Amino acid sequence: MNIIAPSILSGDFADLGNDIRDVLSKGAEWIHFDVMDGHFVPNISFGIPVLASLSKSIDAFYDVHLMIDDPLTYAKDFAKAGADMITFHVEAPVDTKATIDEIRSLGCKVGISVKPGTPASALSEYINDVDMVLVMTVEPGFGGQKFMKDMCPKIREIREMRPDLEYVEVDGGIAPDTAKFVAEAGANVFVAGSSVFKAEDREKAISEMKNA
Ligand code: DX5
Ligand code: ZN
Predict the structure, then answer these.
(1) N or C, which end of the chain has less CB nearby within 10 Å?
(2) How many CA atoms lie within 13 A of 42 on its CB side?
(3) Across 35-64, average pLDDT
């Protein structure tokens, strides 16, 4: 069964705690926490103090997606704030190997992500050292964009590169109708923002994606 990771970027920021409790009670396993710095992506979201408050009051698996230029410097603060998984981008202008080692040394699971324009081959040097690959199925920066179906061959390629990889996550435009394409290609963790938080029936949306 797939793991569902609702992206709180589409949640109600005035009532985030209750939004998180709600999706956890409706079958979501992970909470996806999108961090944007206004440099790596053209948007700014939220960061360390928000994660610290949430993780202190709500027990969940915090799946932190760093869309920032300098994940090497900030990994420690996110780990301290309660991150369980820290994913950064292979395109970030930092030492990729050193960043993987740093996240690992902090006791977190390590994820590495590729933007739509980056080929799977960019991961070949690192894929054996991570717990998760996150394949972006939209250009990172904003929720509510249209799913890019042409990312499916890349998901397949990543699965072939490392068949035993525990998690292949997809992020962007994932909804009950698009989930089947990525599941078929080999993804098993589904980030879903608008399709969960804006759904009329969140429980139904989550269970449909789980069973895709
Ligand atoms: C995009 C973020 C996503 C986003 C997904 O940069 O990484 O996690 O919030 O939102 P939806 O599911 O609405 O496409
Ligand atoms: Zn994300």
Answers:
(1) N
(2) 1
(3) 98
Q: pLDDT for 90-136, tens place per residue? A: 999 999 999 999 999 999 999 999 999 999 999 999 999 999 999 99
Domain range for 160: 3-210
Residue 170 in 3-state DSSP?
strand
Give the atom of ligand 1 at the shortest distance from the alpha carbon of 41.
Answer: 6
Ligand 1 neighbourhood includes 145 CB (under 6 angstroms):
yes
Confidence grade of residue 151 (pLDDT, cut at 50, 70, 90): very high
In the set 19, 63, 69, 171, the catalytic residue is: 171
Number of domains in the chain: 1
What global pTM score does this model have? Answer: 0.98
Active-site residue flag, 34: yes
Here the CATH number for the domain that contains residue 58 is 3.20.20.70
User: What pLDDT sits at residue 85?
Assistant: 98
What does the alpha-carbon distance between residue 6 and residue 22 come to, in Å, rounded to a whole number? 11
How much distance in Å is there from the Cα of 7 to the middle of ligand 1?
A: 6
Nearest ligand to the C-alpha of residue 139? 1
